[in-house]
């Protein structure tokens, strides 16, 4: 038994809820290697059904899912198992959603991209532990570029709609999209 597996405890059940199928499979495999008994769900409905049937000791929920808000799954888990440790993942990090997630019962809130190590640390951190600062944080240019790419994808790669939502001139947006991503 590894040190990580001892830290998990007796109940190693983990529910992963995310609508990104490839990310979900990769994360499930990585968490199984770390000693968890993983169940997955790709929607709010499936996540709530699994949480009702077998409330997990640990959970990782995406905030925005195809059929609703991942916070609904968090609420269901919290009702069925108050001691569960729940991490909310999102590509749309904002203070308001982080506060809402913690108020509903999430243990932690991580912005994507988060790797299995970050998620494991968040799941197993004691309440008194403060997370360490990132060793290699994204530059401001990279954060801006990531946000623009996310909005562009949400707008189904429609440049005019993306520019309107970002309050940016369309040609400026086209120039940004044509460049390589900053480091």
Automatic annotation (TrEMBL):
InterPro entries the UniProt entry points to: ActR_PrrA_rreg, Bact_response_regulator, CheY-like_superfamily, Sig_transdc_resp-reg_receiver
Ranges where the Response regulatory domain occurs: 13-127
Residues with 4-aspartylphosphate modification: 62
Entry keywords, A to Z: DNA-binding, Phosphoprotein, Transcription, Transcription regulation, Two-component regulatory system
UniProt entry tagged with the keyword Phosphoprotein: yes
Entry annotated with the keyword Transcription: yes
Pfam families assigned: Response_reg
PANTHER family referenced in this protein's UniProt entry, alphabetically: PROTEIN PILG (PTHR44591:SF14), STRESS RESPONSE REGULATOR PROTEIN 1 (PTHR44591)
Protein name, as recorded: ActR/PrrA/RegA family redox response regulator transcription factor
């Amino acid at each position: 038994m590894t040190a990580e597996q001892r830290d998990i405890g007796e109940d190693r059940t983990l529910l992963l809820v995310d609508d990104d199928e490839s990310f979900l499979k990769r994360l499930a495999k990585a968490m199984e290697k770390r000693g968890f008994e993983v169940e997955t769900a790709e929607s709010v409905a499936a996540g709530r059904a699994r949480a009702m049937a077998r409330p997990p000791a640990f959970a990782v929920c995406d905030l925005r899912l195809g059929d609703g808000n991942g916070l609904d799954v968090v609420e269901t888990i919290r009702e069925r198992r108050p001691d569960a440790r729940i991490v909310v993942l999102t590509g749309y990090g904002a203070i308001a959603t982080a506060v809402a997630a913690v108020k509903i019962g999430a243990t932690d809130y991580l912005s994507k991209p988060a790797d299995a190590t970050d998620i494991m640390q968040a799941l197993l951190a004691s309440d008194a532990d403060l997370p360490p600062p990132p060793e290699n944080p994204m530059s401001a240019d990279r954060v801006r570029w990531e946000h623009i790419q996310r909005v562009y994808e949400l707008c189904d790669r429609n440049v005019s709609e993306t520019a309107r939502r970002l309050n940016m001139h369309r040609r400026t947006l086209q120039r940004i999209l044509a460049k390589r991503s900053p480091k």
